[in-house]
Design brief:
The complex is a heterodimer of chains A (340) and B (173). Chain A has 340 residues and is of the alpha/beta class. Chain A is built from eleven helices and 18 strands. Chain A folds into two domains: 132 residues, Beta-Lactamase (2-Layer Sandwich), CATH 3.30.450; 172 residues, P-loop containing nucleotide triphosphate hydrolases (Rossmann fold). Classes of the chains: A alpha/beta (340), B mainly alpha (173).
């Protein structure tokens, strides 16, 4: 039996465990950046790069780095500046070169991913992309003239879900259907990833047996798959359906992989809810998240409000940023509405 | 007398080798052009069906192509796998230049390859397909020309080498 949080376990197949930001930037991010931008970031000392979460490239606009609070312009010399005129101006060429490097010089290989507006690079980092969208029959067929890029540095935080695990598990092998309500960038995906990991490994204290976990990872964020292989540690009993639309993914998962728990991110469409009910009818537990600020906010929305009214979720966790990313604002019982 | 004989043999031998080397160039060129077309067809299926990125595609192709064009693909794959910020176009044109000595291509063949490299990897599948077809048809045209040249010149240079050597030897005697 493998227990989570034990130092003995060193899983070399999952790349992102226990990596320093320095290592991530050097081995994942720099390799994908156009030479001009690469040289600027190389000049920056690592302690400055430590809290960086996003690297933003926009054509003819200054290069920007963001941490979880604010963003700075970056000058040619690799210094932060608050003045936009001092920043290094990103050119179209920089962006084209970056895209080519990100795709291993093979844009054709990522053209399907490009349609979704993001690609995943080795290390499981997600790169959002904007530009001119070419659509036919109401479907996006390609994004050309790419003008903006957002490189989100993904760091796996082991133990991010420690404080909420006691609400999610029930006994030694039961799981509560759980909904996480969180505004963007409050650590909801990080939390889901750690929940998946802990449920899959099992927990030592209080004793919890590892379960089969199925992750339906539509945005490739939870497991951060590159070429189908999770780059984050999501546990030994976890199966991942990468880049699969949630609704059909959940149904596929219960049909083919017999998971005990399904974990998925950002539900909200009508078909997601249908699939969710199907999952629950099959006796499979679910842990998922929605965008929202608090209970009232989610209640007001037609589809999600219905979901809460149906008493599907046993536990609801609300996250915020009030005391740093991933603050647990409140936990309440989804059926009785009592705060816990 | 012995010395003269040895001298004659050397002259005839070396001129024969010279003739064969030149003839060889004419014989090898169409062969390589054919191999290149086959390799590009492999690349097409790598791109369209397997959707492998270029470094992997090149590496796979390099395993199946004849020895004389092996290095072109192997070296491109090597350069791309280093991930030093080199694009596919750069890696390809470097490889084309580096394999200049080992391959028997003419300048116009290399130009076809380099212009093929210019849009390598930087567009969607359809464009890549068009690019490959264009390069293939150009190479086929060159192959026809090269074949004609071979028919004309291969025998000529072989014979010229031997006979020229004998002629020189006779003059010296």
């Amino acid at each position: 039996m493998i227990i989570a949080n034990e130092k003995v376990i060193k899983n070399n197949f999952t790349k992102n465990v226990g990596r320093s930001t320095r290592d991530i930037i050097q081995n994942d991010i720099l390799l994908c950046l156009a030479s001009n931008i690469r040289n600027i970031i190389k000049k920056m000392p690592y302690h400055i790069l430590q809290p960086v979460e996003e690297i933003r490239l926009r054509v003819n606009k200054p290069l920007m780095l963001y941490d979880n609070k604010m963003g700075w312009f970056v000058t040619q010399e690799g210094q932060f500046s608050e003045d936009e005129f001092c920043g290094y101006m990103v050119t179209q060429n920089d962006i084209n070169q970056t895209l080519e490097l990100m795709s291993d010089s093979s844009i054709y290989a990522i053209q399907e991913e490009l349609k979704n507006g993001f690609i995943t690079i080795p290390g499981g980092h997600r790169v959002g992309i904007t530009g001119k969208v070419i659509s036919s029959n109401h479907k996006i067929s390609f994004i050309k003239d790419i003008s903006g890029m957002n490189i989100r540095i993904s760091k796996q935080i082991i133990g991010a879900a420690d404080s909420v695990m006691k609400h999610i598990i029930r006994g030694s092998n039961g799981v509560n259907n759980t909904l996480i309500i969180s505004p963007p960038q409050c650590g909801k995906t990080t939390m889901l990833r750690d929940i998946a990991r802990q449920l899959s490994y099992g927990i030592k204290k209080p004793y919890f047996q590892g379960l089969k976990v199925g992750i339906v990872d539509e945005r490739s964020e939870i497991a951060g798959c590159y070429k189908g292989i999770p780059q984050n540690d999501v546990g030994p009993r976890t199966d991942v359906l990468d880049a699969c639309p949630k609704a059909c993914g959940m149904v596929m998962m219960i049909r083919s992989m017999s998971p005990s728990v399904i974990i998925t991110d950002e539900i909200g469409m009508e078909e997601d809810i249908m699939a969710l009910k199907q999952v629950l009818n099959a006796g499979v537990k679910i842990v998922t998240s929605v965008h929202g600020y608090n209970r009232q906010d989610v209640m007001k929305r037609p589809i999600l409000g219905q979901l809460l009214a149906d008493n599907i979720f046993e536990k609801v966790i609300v996250l915020s940023k009030s005391r740093g990313t991933g603050t647990v604002e409140e936990v309440f019982n989804g059926q009785s509405g009592e705060a816990i | 007398m012995i010395l003269k004989l040895i001298g004659c043999i050397l002259i005839v031998g070396s001129s024969t080798i010279m003739g064969y080397t030149i003839a060889n160039k004419y014989a090898k060129r169409p062969e390589e052009l054919r191999a290149l077309q086959a390799a590009l067809q492999m690349l097409e299926s790598e791109i369209i069906f397997s959707v492998n990125p270029l470094p992997d595609a090149f590496e796979r192709i390099s395993k199946y192509v004849p020895k004389n064009i092996h290095k072109l693909f192997a070296h491109s794959a090597y350069l791309l796998k280093q991930r030093t910020g080199i694009t596919a176009q750069e890696a390809w044109s470097i490889s084309v230049h580096q394999t200049r000595e080992e391959m028997h291509l003419e300048k116009e063949d290399r130009e076809i390859l380099i212009s093929f490299g210019n849009s390598l990897g930087c567009s969607d599948r359809e464009q890549q397909l068009k690019n490959i077809h264009l390069a293939c048809s150009k190479l086929a045209l060159e192959e026809k020309k090269a074949e004609k040249l071979r028919e004309k010149n291969e025998k000529l240079y072989k014979n010229l080498g031997v006979l020229g050597g004998i002629l020189v030897a006779l003059i010296f005697i």
